Amino acid sequence: MLQFDAETARILEDSYQGSDVQRRRLANIAALAPSAGERIVDIGAGNGLLSLDISRAVGPEGGVTAVDPSPDMREAATQRCAGRDNIRIVPGDAAALPLDDASVDGAVALQVFEYLDDIPAALAEAYRVLRPGGRLVIGDFHWDSQVWHADAPDRTARILRMWDRHMVWRTLPAHLPGMLRAAGFEVSAVVPELFHDTQLRTDGIARMMMLLISAYARQTGAPEASEVDGWLEEQHRLAAEGRFFFALTHYVTSARKV
Ligand SMILES: C[S@@+](CC[C@H](N)C(=O)[O-])C[C@H]1O[C@@H](n2cnc3c(N)ncnc32)[C@H](O)[C@@H]1O
C-alpha cells in the first residue's frame, strides 16, 4: 500500500484544502450529522482536517478521538489541531480502536477502509465502540468509476492497473452494504458524490490523483514508473488544449448500530 510518509503528507496537504476534497469532507460530515456534546471517533484520521471540522460541530462538551497508525499523519494532525482541547490524537488501528465499549455516538472513516485487509474486523470494532443507535459513516471511491481521457489509452490503463495495487479494495462501496449488515448494522443510505472536471485545477482531486499515482509509482519502483512522466505530460497537454476529461465517484455509506 502507499506509504503515508512525510512527502505524501505534504502533497495531500495542498489538495486537501481544495474545493473537491472539501466537498468530499462535507458530504461525509453531512451524513454523520454530528451535534453538540457528541463523542465521535475519526478512524484513520490522517492529517486531521475532518476531525477539526467535526470538533466544531460537537463543541467543547463533546469530543473527537482521531485514530491513525501513521506517526507522520498523526504529526500533521497534531500540528493542525493544536489548541483544540476537544480533539485527542491517538495511535491505533481500525481493527483495534483504543476506546471503551459503547463509548462513542458516531464513527467516521473517510477513505480508509479501501486500505484495510480485514474489513469484518474493523466493522466489528466500530460496532463495539458505538453506543446502541450510534452512527457509522464510511466514505470511499469506487475505482471502476475512474475516467481519464487519453490519446494513449493503453498507457493510461497500465498506469491505473499499477495504481490498483496500492489499495486492497477497488470496488468497496459495492461490498459495504452487505458487509455492514453481516456485522449487525442497519444500512441507512449510500450516496454518490461525483467528481468530474474538464479542467486540470491545481487544487482539484484530479491533480491530487496525478501526484499520488506518480508518487506511488516512484515509491514502489514499479515497471510502469517509466511511463508516468509521459502520462503526466499528456494530461497537462490535454488540459492546455482544452481536451482534459476526468471523473471519479466517491460513495458515502451510512449505517446505524441496532
Ligand atoms: C487517504 S488517508 C485519509 C485520511 C483522512 N481520513 C481524510 O480523508 O482526511 C488514509 C489514512 O488511513 C490511515 N490508515 C491506513 N491503514 C489504517 C488502519 N489499518 N487503521 C486505521 N487507519 C489506517 C493512513 O495512515 C491514512 O492516514
Secondary-structure map:
Layout: H1 6-16, H2 19-32, E1 39-43, H3 49-58, E2 63-67, H4 71-80, E3 87-90, E4 104-110, H5 119-129, E5 130-148, H6 153-164, H7 172-182, E6 185-197, H8 205-220, H9 225-240, E7 246-257
Parallel strand pairs: 1-2, 1-4, 2-3, 4-5
Antiparallel strand pairs: 5-7, 6-7
Helix pairs in contact: 1-8, 8-9
Bound molecules: S-adenosylmethionine.
S-adenosylmethionine binds next to helix 3.
What attributes does this structure have?
258 residues, alpha/beta, Rossmann fold, seven-stranded mixed β-sheet, 43% helix, binds S-adenosylmethionine
Number of helices: 9
Q: Total strand count, please? A: 7
Task: Provide the residue-averaged pLDDT.
Answer: 94
Using the alpha-carbon principal axes, give the shape.
Answer: globular
What kind of sheet is the major sheet? 7 strands, mixed
Q: What string gives the helices and strands in order?
A: HHEHEHEEHEHHEHHE
CATH C-level = Alpha Beta
What small-molecule ligands were found? Answer: S-adenosylmethionine
Please tell me how large the radius of gyration is.
18 Å
Stated plainly, the CATH topology is called Rossmann fold
How would you describe what is shown here?
The chain is of the alpha/beta class. It has a single domain, classed as Vaccinia Virus protein VP39 (Rossmann fold, 3-Layer(aba) Sandwich), CATH 3.40.50. Helices cover 43% and strands 25% of the residues. It has helices at residues 6-16, 19-32, 49-58, 71-80, 119-129, 153-164, 172-182, 205-220, 225-240, and strands at 39-43, 63-67, 87-90, 104-110, 130-148, 185-197, 246-257. S-adenosylmethionine is lined by residues 4, 43-46, 49-50, 68-70, 73, 93-94, 110-112, 115-116.
